[in-house]
Amino acid sequence: MIEISLADAKELPAEIPLGFAALEGGTILGGAGIAPGLRREIAARADADGFRGKLDETASLCVPWEGVERRVLLAGAGPQSRFGGESLRRACGALAHAAKRRFEALAFDPADRVQEAAEGMMLAAYGFNEYKKAEPGRLKGAKLLVRRSSERRRAEKALERAKLSCEAVFLARDLGNRAPSDKPPRALAQFAKSLEGAGVSVEVLGPQEMSSLGMGALLGVSRGSAQPCAFVHLSYRGPGAKRKIGLLGKGITFDSGGLSLKPPAGMETMKRDMAGAAAVLAVFKVLPRLKPKIEVHGFCAFSYNMPGPDALKPGDVVRAMNGKTIEVLNTDAEGRLVLADALSYAVREKMDALIDVATLTGAAVTALGPKVGVAMGTDRALLRGLLEASRRAGEILCEFPLVADYKEWIQSSVADLCNMGRVRGEGGTVIGGLFLEEFAGGLPWVHLDIAGPSWSSSGGSLAAQGATGAIVRTLIEFLCP
Ligand code: BES
Ligand code: MN
Ligand code: ZN
Fold first, then answer.
1. Which among 431, 424, 454, 288 is positioned nearest to 359, based on CA atoms?
2. Is domain 169-479 given the CATH code 3.40.630.10 in the classification?
3. Which residues are catalytic?
4. Ligand 3 center to residue 404 CA distance, Å?
5. Ligand 1 pocket, 467 CB below 6 A?
6. Please, what CATH class does the domain formed by 3-145 belong to?
7. How far is the CA of 373 from the centre of ligand 1 (A)?
8. Which DSSP string do the residues of 377-437 spell out, in sequence order?
9. For 12-21, 241-250, 390-399, which range has the lowest pLDDT when averaged over its residues?
10. Residue 51 and residue 137: Cα distance in Å, rounded?
11. Dihedral sign, CA of 357, 360, 363, 365?
């Protein structure tokens, strides 16, 4: 972890390396105080070093600066035509990686984008250390330069915001990276309970309460596991709140596929199948400090999906809390089952809008790869709000259509619905969305399929290999613009 603080640009000690982002073509961003001659000198030396300003690229130079030799680090921000907040996050992430082993401290000119700069550095510095010692790094902290005292207040707010959003992301990453046997449903429910405090209340339901409520779909999924399922309802009420927004999370603490068992490779990362619920918990961790003027409810459905002796069998029929019956033809389509009950429960709690977050379909990963999430829903304004929030957060969401003609693909001859599409291998992500719509009670609703972005198998400048904490910053941007 690195500590980010603000510093007056005029009082910067000469021994600290000074970082800048630079565009392709050599333009250095920010650096209001640098003399034009020095600017040209830096650009020329970087160019001679082969630095082109591409994303993830860095350069380290020594330049004569007001009479002393000064270390200058440059990080590529990509082409001018594509420049935005995410370019700066990426540049700062690369800078943090480059400085990690060599310097204890670093100063950076955020060129007015304090939040993005701080987020970039912090996201890049994350490591998961629950099972092994942290990798030794020298970099302890970074100072973001503020040029005018009139900007100080705004910069402080932006930095505070960055710290809260990263704290939330790191919680989601930690939970996603934790070994599957170390996060049984009850333990995560207990963790949710620990988020209770000023502004947030938390209710935990066990199998008995769920059974009296008729949550047969969630209970069905948990039948193959020795560990009971758990359902969590969190609520936050902001000052003067008028709107009630429900966030729902798929919390499969390990998805083996159940009796419709996944092949070994398909199971390797299925400890992250609770990323949706983790995102909801992460948002609640920081909501009371962000204090948006709305009411937010979180609904997390936690269960293992295992092939134990009493597991759901293909052909079984379960009844969800809203009364609809579901023929379970594939026990690996379990996310939509647990969300069917979560949605039914949320509808009964009378929300004004519902947003569910789930690692729902492999088809979403096939279609869009690991950097893009899917959004689909019944309400234009809600969709637009989430897509815009994702752009500000630097997360990519792509809208998929709820194709009405495919609804007949999830009809069953023995129950109200079937949990998988009739045409195997076609339109899997859309089918998942259409299924969930059946449980949204006609409320404004958006489904976010984060199967792709929930995990980074190679690791990148802003996320280490493993759980990414996807969608957390988008949700925060959406709830607290
Ligand atoms: N958790 C998986 C989806 C998933 C796959 C997430 C890969 C992240 C990466 C989900 O429960 C699942 O298994 N879905 C099935 C549905 C199918 C059986 C209708 C799938 O996508 O194959
Ligand atoms: Mn599954
Ligand atoms: Zn799953």
1. 454
2. yes
3. 262, 336
4. 24
5. no
6. alpha beta
7. 14
8. ES-HHHHHHHHHHHHHHT-EEEE----GGGGGGG--SSSSEESS-SSTTSSHHHHHHHHHH
9. 12-21
10. 25
11. positive
- β-strands 466-467, 455-456: how paired? antiparallel
Strand 325-328, strand 417-418: pairing: parallel
Domain ranges of the chain: 3-145, 169-479
Q: Nearest ligand to the C-alpha of residue 303? A: 3
Token output for 29: 């961003």
Does the C-beta of 334 come closer than 6 Å to ligand 1? Answer: yes
* Cα-to-centroid distance, 336 and ligand 3 (Å): 8
Q: Does 255 contact ligand 1 (Cβ within 6 A)?
A: yes
pTM: 0.97
- Ligand nearest to C-alpha 359: 1
3-state helix, strand, coil in the chain (%, to 5): 40, 25, 35
Distances (CA, A) of 425 to 6, 204, 311, 409: 52, 37, 24, 12
For the segment 323-376, what is each residue's pLDDT rounded down to a tens digit? 999 999 999 999 999 999 999 999 999 999 999 999 999 999 999 999 999 999
Tokens, residue 281: 């918990």
Closest approach atom of ligand 1 to CA 335: 11
Find the length of the chain: 481
